[in-house]
Amino acid sequence: MLCSQMVTFCGYSIPHPSEARVNIRVQTTGDPAREVLKEACQNLMLMCRHVRCTFDKAVEDFKARNAVKAMKIDSQDSSGDDSEESE
Amino acid sequence: MAEGAGEEKKKFSIWDLPDVPMGQLPPHLELQRSRVSCNKDAPIHTESIQYSGAYASMGIDNSSRLDRFSNNFRVEVVRLNEDDIEFDMIGIDAAIANSFRRILIAELPTMAIEKVLIANNTSIIQDEVLAHRLGLVPIRVDPRLFDYLSENDQPNEKNTIVFKLHVQCKRGSPRITVKSDALKWLPNGSELVKETRNATSDSSSKPEIYTYFGCSQETVPEFVKNPIIPKYPDIIIAKLGPGQEIELEAHAVKGIGKTHAKWSPVATAWYRMLPEVVLLEDIEDDLAEELKSKCPVNVFDIEDLGKGRRRATVARPRACTLCRECIRGDDWEKRVALRRVKDHFIFTIESTGALPPEVLFTEAVKILEDKCERVITELS
To answer: B110-195+208-263 belongs to which CATH class?
Structure first.
């Protein structure tokens, strides 16, 4: 929220750690603060979705790369054995 | 007059120089914004400069926009095993990385043993200690297939897993160690019967039982493929001497790490920022050898320049543990700069076995999204 251009002040405080309550204070340059807060939450949600997509893709790529490497090693081993046998 | 000249000089050097691109910070400010400098006594510039107007006087727009984030954000997986994962997240803010870490530790649900019904315990391990140890045993089951059990619900096949442990050490046989593979899964629910306080119990009254399983859990195809067992079969639960016996039933329910650490799905999850080791001046010959021997994790290497001269280079900055050995002693701070990149996080997640680590991270991100959604719906 701090990065949004409409916000002049933003902060939070937790009055007591035992009770689950957070006080958020938002001060904006004219726009309603509630909307700014909602927009910030929506941005955060979109960011999370993007993080998830990127992470899933990266894991898939890694697994594919490793599977290819494992296959290559297997084929190398088997071809090595063959050549040894032939010799 | 001097001031005017000074101002003109400043204007000239920042705005009018053709090779300084507009929209870029001068290098020392960029360093302050994107790197944590770790000095001998303490790190500086640790906070992330998030305020949108922070560099307004330089003409830089510091506000984070979603498209900029989407373009710059990258994930690279370094290592992926059955139980742990190490990956790099580049371009994300520290607050969000920390939220993921906290959610992984405290708010991802798992199944763990909560209620232990002890029918017979003549061992030297006390009842409550035995129950505590059973609660900490990780169970290999996907918690997403189960619901939470609240106080008003009845335990049924959708929210409870029942295990049975019946071990006996016969007289004359040596001491036995009770390991976690002695826990047997009961897919049909509890076998114990509640004690009725009614003195007048007629034969027609049905005995009350502890769980109300509508159908056997074995009918779920997921459990046919992977029966529910503790993840590690060799966890020592108790030790029995001759003549001692343990007979109990353990009920496992879904919970989160915030309530009790036994419900935390990660052994632990941590992140560190990418270390950046920079040699501020050329370090040659003897000094180079000294530098290389100082570092306990071999971050530095020597390269030959020919004619017998050697120079130190930074070979493995990622291995740096920030022990600061290389800047200890006189003058070394002028030669070596230890820094950390503020938006590059090396995440490591070690799973206890309920879910594979990459699934754990995806679930943690989903939980953060759910929380945002809840806030949004409450606000409107």
So the answer is: mainly beta
**Residue B64 contacts A where some CB pair is shorter than 8 Å:** yes
- Distance, in Å, from the CA atom of B338 to the CA atom of B275, rounded to the nearest integer, reads 7
Q: Do A41 and B372 touch (CB under 8 A)?
A: yes
On chain A, the residues whose CB falls within 8 A of the CB of B360 are: none
One-letter amino acid for residue B104 of the chain: L
- Asked if A34 is an interface residue toward chain B (Cβ–Cβ < 8 A), one would say yes
Q: What is the pLDDT of residues B64-117, one digit of tens each?
A: 567 777 888 888 888 888 888 999 988 888 888 899 999 999 999 999 999 999
- ipTM score for this prediction: 0.78
Residues A13 and A22 sit within 8 Å (Cβ to Cβ): yes
Report the CATH fold assignment for B30-108+264-379.
Answer: Gyrase A; domain 2 (3.30.1360)
Mutate to test the interface with A, among B75, B90, B343 (most CBs of A within 10 A): B75
What tens digit of pLDDT does each residue of B264-310 get? 999 888 998 888 888 888 777 777 788 778 888 877 888 877 777 77
Please tell me which residue of chain B has the smallest CA distance to A10. Answer: B51
Interchain CB contact of B70 with A (< 8 Å): yes
Q: Would you say B277 and B314 are in contact if contact means Cβ atoms under 8 Å apart?
A: yes
Residue of A60, A62, A66 to mutate, testing the B interface (most B Cβ within 10 Å of its Cβ) = A62
d(CA B343, CA B138): 34
As annotated, the residues of chain B forming the CATH 2.170.120.12 domain(s) are 110-195+208-263
Q: What pTM was estimated for this model as a whole? A: 0.80
Q: Is the dihedral of CA B193, B169, B135, B86 positive or negative?
A: negative
Q: Where in chain B is the domain with CATH 3.30.1360.10?
A: 30-108+264-379
